[in-house]
């Protein structure tokens, strides 16, 4: 039984030595790779997207029913009330931001 414990200790020592050798090899490879010149790729500038705010009238399943200009909030609220009373389902007003297409000259 004592022999088995010694054997495990010896095997463990051998395994540790092998791991240290592998770590040294890996470390030398990474330093060689690090010393090589790295080429930087040119990154594209993110295209700037402009957004415009609107008032949207939505039903309870988040489907947009109507769209109004931002300055027409009262009209959007009135439309939501009309749809709520006529269809017996709740409608509400929420801001919507949509991308503005630039006019090409």
Count of separate DSSP helical elements: 2
Strand content: 15-25%
**Gyration radius, to the nearest Å?**
34 Å
Order of helices and strands: HEEHE
Assign a percent range to the helix content.
Answer: 40-55%
Structural domain count: 2
The count of β-strands is 3
Q: What does the largest sheet look like?
A: 3 strands, antiparallel
**Overall body shape:** elongated
Describe the protein:
By secondary structure, the chain is α+β, with helices and mostly antiparallel strands. Helices cover 47% and strands 23% of the residues.
Please render the helix and strand layout as text.
Elements: H1 2-35, E1 51-59, E2 64-69, H2 73-87, E3 91-99
Antiparallel strand pairs: 1-2, 1-3
How would you sum up this structure in a few lines?
With 105 residues, the chain is an alpha+beta fold. Helices cover 47% and strands 23% of the residues.
Which short descriptors sum up this protein?
3 strands; 105 residues; single chain; 3-stranded antiparallel sheet
